[in-house]
Each structure stands twice: as structure tokens, then as C-alpha cells.
């Protein structure tokens, strides 16, 4: 099988469809892997790493895509990349087809593209085994980004996430006690913030409660069982609001933190 790995073209996308270690496994099993020049550079993998693993370098995205029986990407293909796909190609990546435009869906159907959306791959127990580690990373990064956005020079109100003696910590409201919400909670708590987690799934809140850190005799965190429409009271006193909810088929829940709910704070982070 011919396998193509193009360089990701969307802004701020630095990941690559497959590491040299993965390429080596495929090569050892008789597959030919075409990797675009510099495809892995931003992820820490050089062209030499891929060549040593058995890949063949190509010097533009069109060649990597047009040659492929199986195309390994990270982000959903652009319009131009879809045009380069040969009929019958297998496409794998974080495709987010539920939110894709109809014209792009039509191209996939017309070309009979077999699309494998990583975010929809489920283990037998129902867990999203490929999406989970990315959600863990996203939740952890949310705390870092939120702490930066609280700084005055980033347009914030100059609030310290963990506080200091005589200065209270930031108040953080996290909507959703899933993987993203759990890791965001753990990171914010570890930084010393006071965190309230809101979810309509009581079992998820109960799972979250056990491993949370405490400082002295004071619990840093609390959980609330609420419908998602009943969150405006939380927004009136929070420093940070983080949305970490997910609906079926990958749709984010839009409007969970809306302008009215955050009216006292001027910015939505």
C-alpha cells in the first residue's frame, strides 16, 4: 500500500500524521510511505529521521496526497487537499465531519473516500481511545493559557492564579467533568486556584472529586450538579470560565458561556 503523509497546512497546526517510528513499522511490513519535505519538522522529526525509517521524501503536498492509497493527516483536509485526493483513497485524521461544510462532504462522497475520523474511534467500553490523550493535553494546556490571559499585559485583570498570603486565588468555573474538564481541574487546582466544576452528570462529578488536591484544611475544589442552561450564577463571580463539554458526533456545545452570562467581566477566555 502507498501511504502519504503531507505537511499540515492549516495555521498553527504543528503536528504530523505519523512519527518516524510508525513509518518504520509500516515499511517493515512492505508498505511504501511518502513523506512531504519538512512534514515533521515542527513536531521534532527531521527528513533524515523519516528516511532512516524507510520513507521516501516528496517535495510538495500534492505529490504526497495524490500518490496515497491511505492518507494520514491530523487536521481536516483543505479544499485544495480534497481536490488532490484520488478516488477510492482512505483518509484518516481528526476530520470533524459533523461540522464540515456540505460541499466538502459531497467531494468525499463523489470520490468514494473512506474517511476514518480519529475523534470518533471508540473502544469496546465506549471510550474514545484516540481522542482521549489529546483531550488530556488540551485540558492541561487550558490552565496554562488561562493563567497567562489573567495577566494585565494579555488583557486580563491582573489576577494571580494561585494567590498569595492576603490575596485570594482566581475563581475558576469549568463546564464539564469529562477528560478535558478533569485535567483542567487538576492543573488549575495544582496552581492554587479555587475551582468549581459544573456538570449535569452526577457520576462524572463523583469520579472527579476523589483525586483532587487539597491545601491545608481547605478543599480547593467543589462540584455542582446543574443543567447547562443554569450556569449564569457561576459566571457572576468567576475569574476564568472554561467550556469542556461535548455532545454526540463531536459537536461542541455552543453558547455555554455566552456574553450575557459573562457580562461583568468584559472578556471571554
Can you give keywords for this protein?
269 residues; alpha/beta; Rossmann fold; 6-stranded parallel sheet; 4-stranded parallel sheet; 9 helices; elongated; disordered C terminus
Could you tell me the radius of gyration in angstroms?
A: 22 Å
The CATH topology of the largest domain: Rossmann fold
User: Which structural class matches the secondary elements?
Assistant: alpha/beta
How many angstroms does the end-to-end distance come to?
45 Å
SSE string, helix = H, strand = E?
A: EHEHEHEHEHEHEHEHEEEHE
Number of discrete helical segments? 9
Strands of the largest sheet, in order across it?
3-2-1-4-5-6
The CATH homologous superfamily of the largest domain is named NAD(P)-binding Rossmann-like Domain
Residue share in helix: 25-40%
Which architecture of the largest domain would the CATH scheme give at its second level?
Answer: 3-Layer(aba) Sandwich
Q: Unreliable stretches, pLDDT < 50, 5 or more residues?
A: 214-221, 249-269
Q: Please give the domain count.
A: 2
Beta-strand content bin: 15-25%
Q: Tell me the major beta sheet.
A: 6 strands, parallel
Shape verdict: elongated
Number of strands: 12
Mean pLDDT: 84
CATH top level class name of the largest domain:
Alpha Beta
